[in-house]
């Protein structure tokens, strides 16, 4: 029976150019480096990856907790619990997904856990009442805001030791790195300002006035703009990061705290703790285009890397709301937490 050939294979020098050989053991033409393929694909299959969401269980004022709960987003169930310090309020995951960093407000330290084992691998002493945490884009540094010390601790993530302590404004909370890692912005809650740290020198190079009680910060993917929640002003400040100036102020719900941005930078999700809602801001117009009811006293939000769903912690009803980004509707509510506050996404591949 005459072998069939594709139109591409009929082109002059096709086999010579790509060093393709026929192998009687194969059901197809194989490249020279895989001519013993025996009908197996010449390249390995892509890994089977799944998104995990890490939630800090801070507990309540009278009963602080000390764990991080892990959500498998394929089932929206809690699949693991990681012991950390007392009253963990935020969590950050390294860019490679290998480790999580969790400040413990009442323990004055940071727990580092392995996402492969869901076990602590290091405990790092920092300042008084550590609260916010962010990992640099290249994964080499973790910045931790110490609310009681008015400082930021700089952690070398290779050594898991503090290498610098930076004075900032009063009661620092959320931290965000610029996408290029050159600067870190710190929300100074009681100074009503943002401290801008040069990450090369670990020196504050600018202070930007914003609204009352700034809480968290998120950058657009191109690094041009930062969105800051002002809890006591019920607004979001938009900062032009090129000139470190507020260029817009957006009214949102009551008590805005947490922030997250879609991977394409089109929408910012703002958690309104006092309204039990999430406001969705269109970054092209800086207007609120949707308001989504969630649970009681929502705190933080994370968006999956594929941009499909947002996960919101509801501190007082001990749940996490799952929002469909396409419809801006809550499609699931996950129970089983204890005063959930901080939340971040990681990835595990098999």
TrEMBL record:
<dbReference type="InterPro" id="IPR051200">
    <property type="entry name" value="Host-pathogen_enzymatic-act"/>
</dbReference>
<dbReference type="InterPro" id="IPR015943">
    <property type="entry name" value="WD40/YVTN_repeat-like_dom_sf"/>
</dbReference>
<dbReference type="InterPro" id="IPR019405">
    <property type="entry name" value="Lactonase_7-beta_prop"/>
</dbReference>
<dbReference type="InterPro" id="IPR011964">
    <property type="entry name" value="YVTN_b-propeller_repeat"/>
</dbReference>
<protein>
    <submittedName>
        <fullName>Cell surface protein</fullName>
    </submittedName>
</protein>
<dbReference type="Pfam" id="PF10282">
    <property type="entry name" value="Lactonase"/>
</dbReference>
<dbReference type="InterPro" id="IPR011048">
    <property type="entry name" value="Haem_d1_sf"/>
</dbReference>
């Amino acid at each position: 029976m005459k072998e069939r050939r594709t139109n591409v294979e009929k082109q002059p020098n096709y086999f010579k150019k790509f060093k393709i050989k026929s192998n009687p053991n194969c059901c197809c033409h194989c490249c020279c480096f895989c001519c013993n393929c025996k009908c197996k694909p010449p390249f390995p299959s892509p890994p089977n990856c799944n998104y995990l969401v890490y939630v800090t269980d801070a507990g309540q004022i009278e009963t602080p907790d000390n764990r991080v709960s892990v959500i498998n987003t394929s089932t929206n169930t809690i699949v693991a619990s990681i012991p950390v310090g007392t009253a963990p309020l935020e969590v950050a995951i390294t860019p490679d997904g290998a480790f999580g960093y969790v400040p413990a407000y009442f323990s004055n330290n940071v727990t580092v856990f392995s996402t492969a084992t869901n076990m602590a691998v290091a405990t790092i002493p920092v300042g008084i009442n550590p609260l916010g945490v962010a990992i640099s884009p290249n994964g080499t540094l973790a910045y931790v805001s110490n609310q009681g010390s008015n400082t930021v601790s700089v952690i070398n993530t290779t050594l898991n030791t503090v290498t610098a302590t930076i004075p900032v404004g009063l009661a620092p909370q959320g931290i965000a790195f610029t996408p290029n890692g050159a600067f870190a912005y710190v929300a100074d809650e009681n100074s009503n300002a943002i401290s801008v740290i040069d990450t090369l020198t670990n020196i504050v190079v600018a202070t930007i006035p914003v609204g009352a009680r700034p809480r968290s910060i998120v950058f657009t993917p191109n690094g041009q703009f930062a969105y800051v929640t002002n809890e006591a002003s019920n607004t979001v400040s938009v900062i032009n990061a090129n000139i470190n100036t507020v260029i817009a102020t957006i009214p949102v719900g009551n008590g805005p705290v947490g922030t997250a941005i879609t991977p394409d930078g089109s929408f910012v999700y703002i958690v309104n703790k006092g309204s039990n809602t999430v406001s969705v801001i269109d970054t092209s117009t800086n207007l609120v285009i949707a308001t989504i009811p969630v649970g009681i006293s929502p705190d933080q939000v994370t968006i999956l890397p594929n941009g499909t769903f947002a996960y919101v912690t509801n501190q007082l009803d001990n749940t996490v709301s799952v929002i469909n980004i396409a419809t801006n509707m809550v499609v699931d509510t996950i129970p089983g937490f204890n005063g959930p506050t901080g939340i971040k996404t990681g990835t595990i591949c098999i």
